[in-house]
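Lecture notes, unit on protein representations.

Consider one protein chain, 307 amino acids long.
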Amino acid sequence: MKQTLSILTLIVILCKPENSFSQEAENTLLLKDTLEESDDFMPKAFFSTRIINGHSIETLPKGYMEMRIEHRFGDIAGTNGGFQNMFGFDNLSDMRFALEYGITKDLMVGFGRCKGTGAPYRSLLDGFVKYRALRQSSKMPVSLAVIGGSTFTYMKASTDESQVNHFPKASHRLAYFAQANITKRFGDRLSLAFMPTFVHRNYVAADDLNSLLALGGAFRVKLTDQFALIGEYYHAFSFNNTRPTDVYKQSMAIALEWQTFGHNFTINFTNSGGLGETQFIPYTYENISKGQFRFGFCVARKFIINE
């Protein structure tokens, strides 16, 4: 619970008025977040640069930095949940701190650090580049972004040579992903996204595959000007039944999104313990039918660095 209180305290500090922009800057940022540069383009399909676990089509405006705090608790029910564990609040599954920056209106980069779930990795550094190649308009039916990223674990290597985290070579600590995000906004309230994704890990268990193909799908339904319901599902494909389905599960999540000026809040429920494509796509072990789903949240705060 001390970890949870520390996170909540940091959130309060970030949200205090004396640490935020002037009201004029806040209004400018909100305007940039809700409108495109030309009436020919559709408004934003997703408010945040993320959907829930994975990336969205959106990028940060040029010269803007975003600080992200993502937190994932333990199982709500099942053998590791329930009242004795305060329905997961006593257990920390994963957390991530990150800084991300908009280089141009369509190009952004980001760097972060995850605690890691320990199944099989902890102490993860991550980085990514995202480029939005197409934007939906009266002449273009969809938006398209391409994302590439990598993670590196600096956890202490296991002395058990049979374990994945034994790391015989330094390169075995690396994993990569590449994704094409295709999104279409339908009218004022509905957006749909499809995310074909490739994940490669340099070192895996005997019952796993180094390279995985996955297809993600997501939706966003605008409820009010400030609230939206979002959902996300990733299906990792296994060829020749190499990955046993009784071990590896598919990642799914649903969330309530709340936006206000430079802040974006997401309260989510998901069966995934890890954060980042190289974690939640290949390493989701939790079975929802057994109560193995968890509460999580994300707080994102934008800052004007250079307009």
